[in-house]
Structure formats: C-alpha cells, structure tokens
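ingest -> validate -> predict -> emit
validate: passed (alphabet ok, no gaps, 508 aa)
predict: started
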Amino acid sequence: MEENGDIFGDGVNIAARLEAFAAPCGIVLSSKAHAEVAGKLNINFNDLGEHNLKNISSPIRIFSIRELSYYTKRTHDVHGFEGDINPLSIAIMPFDNLSGDRSQEYFCDGLVDSLTTDIALHIPNLFVVGRSSAFTYKGASVDARRVSRELSTQYILQGSIQRSGQRFRINARLVNGANGEQQWSERFDGDASDPFGVQDEVISRIANSIAGAIYAERSRAVEARGGEPGVMDLVLQGWGKAFLGDRSKAAFDAAEPYYRAALAIEPTNPDANIGLGCVIAGRLFNVERYSLSTEELKLRVNEAHKLLDAGLSQKPQAAMAHSARCILFAVVHRWREALSACELAHSLDGSSSLYLINIANCRTALGDPQSSIEYLEKGLRRSPRDPNIGILYSALGRAHLLLGRWRESIDYSLRSRVTAPTLIVVHLALAAAYAQVGDKAQAEASLADARKIEPNVSFAWLDAHAWSFEPAYLRFAETTFYQGLRKAGLPEGDRLAAPSPARLHERT
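emit:
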C-alpha cells in the first residue's frame, strides 16, 4: 500500500525484520522473494530455516545468498579460511539436556532460542546462523569443525543444562570452528523458580562473555597476521583496544588511531564512525571533562556527535552509538536527554551491563540513587566479570554514599579502586565515607590519592566538575558527600573563580 510516497504493509515489515539476519554486506530473502528468483538467476542460496519475526503472524522461511559478500571476500584469506566463512559468525547449537527428564527439553530449547536472538543484537556485525539450521544437529554428537564447514560459520557455541528440582547448572563453551580450539567456557548455577528471569540473566551473562571472547580473538588474529590491514581489521583492533579493558585514557588513546585509519580508507564506514565517536565520548566522560576548557570540550563533544550521527544514519539501531550519545549529554549535564538515550540503547540491547550502568548514573544525577542501585545490581548479576566492573562498583559506591550508607559505600569504592584506580570520584567517595565513620587517617589518605590525579582538587574544583547540578542531586550530596569531604579536610579553594552551573550548561 502506498500513501503520499510512503509504502506500508507486511512486505515492508518483513524486510525490516530480515535485516538482522544478514551478514555484513550480505543479502537475505523471504521465501516469497526466493520463489520469484530461484532458478532464474545464477545464484546459490542457503536455507536458514523458518523464523518468528516481530509483529508478523506466521513464521517466515529465510534464505541467504551463498556468494561471497564484500566483507567475506576481503577477510577469508586473512584468517586462513577457504570458502565463504565469515570470520564474525556463530552457530548456537542445541544445548544437551542432562537432567534425565525429557520434559525439561522446553527449558533447554527456550534458552537457546532466546540466546540466538540476544547474541545477534548484542555483538555488532556478528552473523548468527538461524535457529532452524542449528537445530538440525539436535541429539547428534557434534564435531565443531564439521559444523563450521557445513554451516559456513567461524564460531560454535555448545552447552549442556542439568536441572534438579528448582536448581539448575548450565555449562557453555565457545569453540573456534577452524581449528576446534576452545576460546571460552563458563559454568552457571542458579534457581529456576523464575524461569524467565533465569533465562534473561544467564543469556545476558553468556552474551557479554562471548562478545569479549570473539572480539579479543579476532583482534589477536589480525595483529598476528601483520601486513596491510583493511577497514574491518582496523575496526576490530580499535574495538579490542578500547572496550576489552578498563576504558582508561590509555585504552582510548590506543584505540583512536585504528578508527581514524579506518575512516581514512572509508570515511562513510558506520562501524568506524561509531567506534571513534564512542572512544571520544568515553574519554571525555571518564577523564577529559575534568581538564578541558569550555571551548575544547565543546569541540570534542560536537566531533563525537557528528561521528555518531554519521554511523546512526546507516545503523539506526546501533545500541552502542545511542549509549555514547547518552555519555555526551551527561558530560554537559543534560541528564534527562542522557537518560532517554541510554534507555533507548538498553531497549535495543538488553544484555549489556554498560547500558544499565549509564541508566543508573543518570538516575543518580537526577536525584534518585535508590533506583540507581537497583539497575547497578541487575548489571552486576548479568555480567559479574565485565570489563566495566570498576565503573559499576564506583557508581554503587557513589549511590550508597548519597544515601548515607557509609560502610556499603566504602566496600564498593574499595573494589572500584582495585580495577579503576584512575577515577578521581572513587578516591573522593572513599575520603567522604571514611570521614563520615570517623576514620580520619583513611579519609586523609584517600584525599591524597585524589590529589595525585588532580593536584588542585578542592570545593572550587567540585563547583566546576560536580557530578550533577540537578537540585535533587545536590540535596543528597550536601549532607553526605560534601559534608564528608569537609570532615576529611578538602579545602574550599577560590570558589568565586569557579564556573557557575549555568555557564557549564552553555557548553553545547
């Protein structure tokens, strides 16, 4: 149906849903489109099986074109593959039911079905083989290398589930199909009294772990190969440098040249634009906003917005880009816009703990530290070994401090100090909390640690670099955080010379 130049109908909806099943630069068709061209064009197709698509009443059979995509052609020689294997592809195999109870098959199959969908959303550019194709191996003894050849996929995720009463155990492992080597494995134990809640938590933890394992392995493969890197090689290396570690200034600095080199080759590449935008945003939020002038900050924020906009024009559902926009809004204290952006990122990818951290930070800044804690605890359950764990602990320490829970704040801030020692807010939170419980020696030591990062730290410095200028936040901070810092001995400084909150809001 056409109206004023716009096209509506199931065909348009199906086309939009099919995009998620296409490999980078690849092509997929519905069964209806396939029937129109099969036998008429000199093209071979892969049958990806039937899939349930959102807002489409009946399952749709999906086909992909078997010819090498542009991306695969550029990379299959690089990574030692022959044929059309995409180096960023995975098959989620049916998990073995070890419970001895066939009635538990629904639990196994439901978890794998949800995992197939979530991983496709969570890992940028990862092609996930359709569930129907993967489930043809159900009940069979599976050799990862054979499956890799037959499904033309790089990685194989295998696992087993054992359930007894309301307790369950899940073992999962990621195997490189090229050589049969195990890249990652983990065991998950839990309570199955809430099966949907259990599935969400386990799926998120597996998706987060696999994302890190795949990108780390691909980044190592590119570096080991040497030679002249291509655009996607550079993007992979940039991602590995920036987002597999502690998100420190050193990590972001190491990643930036890779993204800029990729953009020098292909200025419109969406992944390179989004990656560089994320690097600039992350460095601004964690480090540079405390040292840049108003004009310098404005230039950096605007550069990052332009990069993210360029990427989003091609990939409007890139959750990572919306998360970076959240950070950019937060840097200039536009917290309500920041909250909207990170809630959108979370709606697009519910597995990432980073988006939960961002939502929590926004809620703290808007004066709601209690709900912030709920989001952070959810993020901790979903990704207990996350590379961002230091940032998460810091946010928990700050939220508990604002609520006057001194011991909890100290506990989480100490954990954060181990993994994110360069965050000045960690040391300031410790100084305030220790002072509130009367431990003056530890309070002074924590303040000294903060001075190693910012020698001029004072209340005047806080006036210019406060976490938030929202009245609801400041009411919490004045009687907890700031009161504790006064007890710890933080000097006032030249508060008249500090920029006003209104001036800070004028930065963009």
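The chain has 23 helices and eleven strands.
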